[in-house]
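Chapter review: from sequence to fold.
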Amino acid sequence: MWVLVATFLIFFMHAGFAMLEAGQVRSKNVANQLTKNLLTWSVGVLAFFVVGAGVSAVVGTLTSSGSFAPTDLYSTMTTNAVNDWVGWLFGAVFAMTAATIVSGAVAGRAKLRAYVGYTVLLAAVIYPVVTGFTWGGGLLAINPESANGWIADVIGAGFADFAGGMIVHGMGGIAGLTAAYVIGPRMDRYNADGSVNVIPGHSMTFAALGTLILAFGWYGFNVGTAASVFAVEDGSLVLGAFDTVGRVALNTTLGMAAGAVGAGLATLYKTGKVDTLYVANGLLAGLVGVTASANVVVWYGGIISGLVAGAQLPFVFEFVEKRLKIDDVCAVFPVHGSAGVVGALLIPFFHVDGFSASLLAAQVAGVAVISAWTVLATGAVFGLFNAVGQARVSPEHERDGLDVSEHGVDTYPEFGTPDTVTDGGSDVVRMDGGTAAAGGIKMVAAIVRPDRLGDIKQSLAEAGAPSLTVTNVSGRGSQPAKTGQWRGEEYTVDLHQKVKIECVVADIPADDVVEAIRDGAKTGEPGDGKIFVLPVEDALQVRTGNRGPEAV
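The token string follows.
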């Protein structure tokens, strides 16, 4: 019953993952992200049941004793031991946690079939191999002290990972980074000169609430792993290893709090502001950092592990984004990958039994083996999808959004707003003080695609007309209508989301502004928009009272 309750808590973490990831993607990709989260569980748990748990047992058997009975592969389907069924389910929610992490890294451009195909292979082979040579492939797959698989045999001291800080989260984060590298960045993520465009997610509220749901479920992840909390003595139920449970609960809470503080301090140092999303991500990174060690480190070790895991977050994300040029949409590598590595490597330094060089060697070996296998296997799977043209959606579908192109739905059909991309170019200096252009004051108004706004801003800056007004609008022109779907009922969407750009000029020719907007807006496909030039009778600058061209 204890294990089942913990299992249900861990399953509820999928609600947190869904909200967190949906909040960090554009509004046009929300339904796609939610679908991936739903299918991660649905498809993945079947693959883990039919194949994955057996593969884990096989790998655990082969890497320890060297013997293997063919029936072991399907033992989870034929056993009559009820506790084994419960143990399998507990292992399954761990496996699905590793799988769902990957979806956040490849959001906004991965084909659904590629992601689902990878999820099947991760649940059936990639993750079970990791648990086989670390946790030894048991159904419950948890050893509170250390691993009993291949790494223990080779190193001589078991690789310690209490609840999957490296085995589950580190593996998932590294897999996500690898997949994002193979698929490539989203359109408009990087400029031709390598500078970065910021593409904000559509809901900070979703991201923060999803974080808190994950944190709640994490108590099942960590505290629930102490499966020996109860024991039977003289026919009565008594507390078992509750001292371990208490330490795990304490370190989980302290690591969580320290992670949020560490990320907040790091962003304050870097930017002068405490970034809300980084605080949320830091809270999760702190949890990841303490997950491997919660049962065996002293209380201040839990704090330091969480603090370091949270503080590294903005620096590692910047390195991945700007140096490696990998578009990790939901920051899954710094939150899960590098935080998992940090947590696993810090265990020997804060262990309740003191520092152990042999344990440090085992931790380094375990991290290296898990990382190498994950990169190799994930790179091979997504590389194959990429080679046959099935890894990512077409540019047209990516511009329209995966909600429409992959699922035929509009997540916000009544009140949605288009997504805009901010440009990552250098600072713009206004070119005021020129003489009035022939024809007086003109307003250039353009209705264009939302995703072209960054390029248009850059073109206007280069033309010397950086001042503009941008409005979110919807309308129709020559672009054909689309068919939407809600609960199986189709409906027509004939008003397309656009942005309206207005630029009033007096000291530069309106034709130059028109050409600048056209250069930035053009994709060559229906729906690029239209540009209008209107005369302006007069203008007044509120602050100075200047009128006419001088006011503009």
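Two observations follow directly from the output. The first helix runs from residue 2 to 24. Strands lie at 230-233, 236-239, 442-448, 469-475, 482-486, 489-493, 496-505, 529-535.
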